[in-house]
Automatic annotation (TrEMBL):
GO MF annotations in UniProt: aminoacyl-tRNA deacylase activity; ATP binding; catalytic activity, acting on a protein; proline-tRNA ligase activity; transferase activity
Signal peptide: none
Organism field: Paraliobacillus quinghaiensis
This protein's encoding gene: proS1
Protein name, as recorded: Proline--tRNA ligase
Major subcellular location class: cytoplasm
Length: 570
C-alpha cells in the first residue's frame, strides 16, 4: 500500500480529551477518528489491525468447533421483556420505537435473540451440543464514555453461545473456551490474567474474566504472589482465619461509654485511642425487601457483591438514614450488633469479626459505644458468619499459597456458564434420549475486539508512538524513500516495494514528498515493526533497516533486504 494513496492522517499534538496512551496514540497515528462521544470510525490502518485480531479469534473458535453466523443488531423488545432484562439491564440499553410504535433495542448482547432462534431450530438432543458465534458491533448507552475504545457506546465484540443437554457438556465447552481465549490473548502478545468474576446482569453462576494488565484498567485484580490464583477484587475470597498478629490479651468486661459527636470509625478510634482494626463497623443494608445489619472490622470494607451472592438477592443497597433511625433507634455511626431491639433485622458478621478481642461497636444509642466487645461472649451463640468483605493486599491467598497482591486490569474477554436461565424464560427445550422435554443448558463467551486493540496499545508503546507486535501490526514493513524527487532513491524504493509485495510481505510504502523528519516521526508513531529506509546511499544499493521496538539499526544491501525481513518475521 502506498501511503500517498491511503488515509493516514497523523497528528503532532495530543487531541483534547484523550487522557490515556491508547486513545492518544490511535488518534495521533491515524487509526481512529471520533464521530461522536464514545463512537469511533476505524480508518484503514485501524481496520487492518481489527481484521488481524478477528482472524486470530476466528481461528481459535474454528479449532473448538464453533460456527460463525451473524444476528441482527436491532432486537424486538418482546424478547428482552420475556427474560425480564428490558428493565433490569438499565439505562445502558439503547431503546427506540419504529414508525408503528413497536419497541426495539440496539443489541448490547444477544442471549435473547440466539435463544429464541435455537428454540425454533433445534428440537432433539441429537443436535446438541451446538456452539455458534458472531463478530458484530454492540451498543451501550454509557453515561460517561471515556478512554477512547475502552469505554465506548459502540464497540466491536465477538460473542459466542453454546447449547447443551447436560451440565457436564457445558463444563466441557467452558473449558475449551477458556483455553481458546487463553490462546487468543497469548497469540496477540498480551500480558493477561484469567480471573474469577461475578456474572452480574448476564445471569448464571461460574464465570472468568480475562484481564490485560494495565495501570489504566478500571478493574482491580487480586492475585497470589506465588501461585496462579487470580480473581476480580469483587470475587476474591477471604479465608476464615485469625491474623498472624492476633493478640492473646485478656478479655475485659463489656462497658458502654459516651462518645459525643464521634460518628465515623476513624473519629471513634481516635477518641478511644485504639487502632481502627479494634472497631466494629455496622452498616444497615436492604437486601431485596429485608433489612440486614452487616458487621465488619473497622479497617475492612463491606463487599455488596458477596452479600448479593450469599443471599442470592436481586438487589442490595444501603439503607437510608431515616430507615436506620426508625429500625435501630440511632443514627449512622452509633449502630451495632448488641441489643438490636428490632428482632426482624437479621445480623451477619464478617469472618474477621470472629477473632477480635476487646473491640468497640455502636450501642444503638446516639453518642454511645460499647467497649471491650468480645464476639464469643457478647454475641448470639447462633450468630451468622460469612465472607462479606473486600480482600486486602497482604491477606493470605484463598488457595493457601502466598499473599494477595493487587494489579489494575482491562477486561478483554469473559466466559459464563448461564445454565437454564434464558432457555427457561424463552421456552428453549429439546427432546432427550428418553423422548422427554428438557430445558437447554447454555454458556456464553465474549471477546471485546475493539477493546483488545486498545489494550494492546496500552501494553505496546513508547515515548515515540505505538510498537505493534508483528502478528497484528497493520503492515509488517514500513518502506521509506527520503527524497522521492531523486531518481536513484525513487527507483530503488519502487523496486524494493515490488519485491516485498511479490514475496507476500505486507508493506506500507511512504512515497510522499514530505521531509525526512516528518516521515521518520510518522513511522515511529504508527509503529510498524520493521522499517527499511532508502536514502543517500541508494546509488550504492545500500538501505537502512531498523527494528521499531528495540531501535536497532543496520545497513543492508538491496539484494539482502528480503532475506533480512523474512528472518525477522520468522
Amino acid at each position: 500500500m502506498k501511503q500517498s494513496q491511503t488515509l493516514v492522517p497523523t497528528l503532532k499534538e495530543i487531541p483534547a480529551g484523550a487522557d490515556i496512551a491508547s486513545h492518544q496514540l490511535l488518534l495521533r497515528a491515524g487509526f481512529i477518528r471520533q464521530t461522536a462521544s464514545g463512537i469511533y470510525s476505524f480508518l484503514p490502518l485501524g481496520k487492518r489491525v481489527l481484521r488481524k485480531i478477528e482472524e486470530i479469534v476466528r481461528d481459535e473458535m474454528d479449532n473448538i468447533g464453533a460456527n460463525e453466523m451473524l444476528m441482527p443488531a436491532l432486537q424486538p423488545a418482546e424478547l428482552w421483556k420475556e427474560t425480564g432484562r428490558w428493565n433490569a439491564f438499565g439505562l445502558e440499553l439503547m431503546r427506540m420505537n419504529d414508525r408503528h410504535e413497536r419497541e426495539f433495542a440496539l443489541g448490547a448482547t444477544h442471549e435473547e435473540v440466539i435463544t429464541s432462534l435455537i428454540k425454533d431450530e433445534v428440537k432433539s438432543y441429537k443436535k446438541l451440543p451446538l456452539t455458534v458465534y458472531q463478530i458484530q458491533s454492540k451498543f451501550r448507552d454509557e453515561q460517561r464514555p471515556r478512554f477512547g475504545l475502552l469505554r465506548g457506546r459502540e464497540f466491536l465484540m465477538k460473542d459466542a453461545y453454546s447449547f447443551h443437554e447436560s451440565y457436564a457438556s457445558l463444563d466441557e465447552m467452558y473449558d475449551k473456551m477458556y483455553e481458546a481465549y487463553s490462546n487468543i490473548f497469548t497469540r496477540l502478545g498480551l500480558n493477561f490474567r484469567a480471573v474469577i468474576a461475578d456474572s452480574g446482569a448476564m445471569g448464571g453462576k461460574d464465570t472468568h474474566e480475562f484481564m490485560a494488565l494495565s495501570e489504566v484498567g478500571e478493574d482491580t485484580i487480586a492475585f497470589s504472589d506465588t501461585s496462579s490464583y487470580a480473581a476480580n477484587i469483587e470475587m476474591a475470597q477471604v479465608l476464615d482465619q485469625a491474623d498472624d498478629d492476633q493478640s492473646g490479651e485478656e478479655l475485659l468486661p463489656l462497658d458502654k461509654v459516651a462518645t459525643p459527636n464521634q460518628k465515623t470509625m476513624e473519629q471513634v478510634a481516635d477518641y478511644l485511642k485504639h487502632p481502627l482494626a479494634k472497631g466494629l463497623k455496622s452498616l444497615l443494608y436492604k437486601v431485596d425487601e429485608t433489612f440486614l445489619l452487616v458487621v465488619t472490622r473497622g479497617d475492612h470494607q463491606v463487599n455488596d457483591i458477596k452479600l448479593k451472592n450469599f443471599y442470592q438477592a436481586t438487589t442490595v443497597e444501603l439503607a437510608t438514614e431515616a430507615d436506620v433511625e426508625e429500625i435501630l433507634g440511632a443514627g449512622f455511626g452509633s449502630i451495632g450488633p448488641i441489643d438490636v431491639k428490632n428482632k426482624e433485622v437479621d445480623v451477619i458478621f464478617d469472618f474477621a469479626v470472629r477473632y477480635v478481642v476487646n473491640a468497640t461497636c455502636g450501642a444503638n444509642q446516639d453518642g454511645y459505644h460499647y467497649v471491650n466487645v468480645n464476639p464469643e461472649r457478647d454475641f448470639d451463640p447462633e450468630a451468622k458468619y460469612a465472607d462479606v468483605r473486600f480482600v486486602q493486599e497482604g491477606d493470605p491467598s484463598p488457595d493457601g499459597k502466598g499473599q494477595i497482591q493487587f494489579a489494575r486490569g482491562i477486561e478483554i474477554g469473559q466466559v459464563f456458564k448461564l445454565g437454564e436461565f434464558y432457555a427457561d424464560k424463552l421456552g428453549a427445550s429439546f427432546l432427550n434420549d428418553q423422548g422427554r422435554a428438557s430445558t437447554m443448558i447454555m454458556g456464553c463467551y465474549g471477546v471485546g475486539v475493539s477493546r483488545t486493540l486498545a489494550a494492546i496499545v496500552e501494553q505496546y508503546h513508547d515515548e515515540k508512538g505505538i510498537t505493534w507486535p508483528s502478528q497484528i501490526a497493520p503492515f509488517q514493513v514500513h518502506l521509506l524513500v527520503l527524497n522521492s524527487k531523486k531518481d536513484e532513491q525513487k527507483q530503488l524504493a519502487d523496486q524494493l516495494y515490488a519485491n516485498l509485495k511479490a514475496q507476500g510481505i505486507e508493506v506500507l510504502y511512504d512515497d510522499r514528498t514530505d521531509r525526512a523528519g516528518v516521515k521518520f516521526a510518522d513511522s515511529d508513531l504508527i509503529g510498524i515493526p520493521y522499517r527499511v529506509t532508502v536514502g543517500k546511499r541508494a546509488d550504492e544499493g545500500i538501505v537502512e533497516c531498523k527494528i521499531r521496538v528495540s531501535g536497532e539499526q543496520s545497513e543492508c544491501h538491496k539484494d539482502d533486504v528480503i532475506s533480512y525481513v523474512k528472518s525477522l518475521l520468522s
